Amino acid sequence: MIPKNLENLTKLSFLDLGFNSYLHSDDVYWVSKVPLLQNLYLSDVFLGRAQNLFKVLSMLPSLLKLELMNCSITKMHNHDHQLVSYTNFSGLVSLNLANNGLDGPDLNAFRNMTSL
User: Which of 30, 85, 91, 104 lies closest to 64, judged by CA?
Assistant: First the structure.
């Protein structure tokens, strides 16, 4: 389990928990408490049951790079599609969603991200 007390690291700008297949998180709300986070690497962390994943990630105004490769993300909810299209994700310059179960309609939500 990813420790929720990471939310106390409010000045953190880089977090790499990737390629640690023993980690998982059902609640990623803690990440919204780290407003200066620019680089977030969670590849191979099981996020298949994470509630409001994209909503929480959209609360990070400084986020530039996001790695969510092989996280068992299989579906985006309808409200996630709207969030991705019209929120802070516009600042992302790098996004990796490879090796998840997302299909065409889910990935289509990212089509307006011109900074990638």
Answer: 91
Cβ neighbour number for residue 70 with a 10 Å cutoff: 20
Domain extent at residue 71: 4-108
Q: How high is the mean pLDDT in each 10-residue block of the chain (116 residues)?
A: 89 95 91 94 94 85 94 79 62 91 80 72
In a domain, 52, yes or no: yes
Q: What is the pLDDT at residue 111?
A: 74
Q: What is the pLDDT of residue 59?
A: 85
Angle in degrees, CA 56, 57, 61, rounded to 5? 110
Q: For residue 70, what pLDDT is reported? A: 96
Could you tell me if residue 113 is inside a domain?
A: no
If one counts the domains in the chain, the total is: 1
d(CA 48, CA 38): 23
The answer to whether position 115 is within a domain reads no
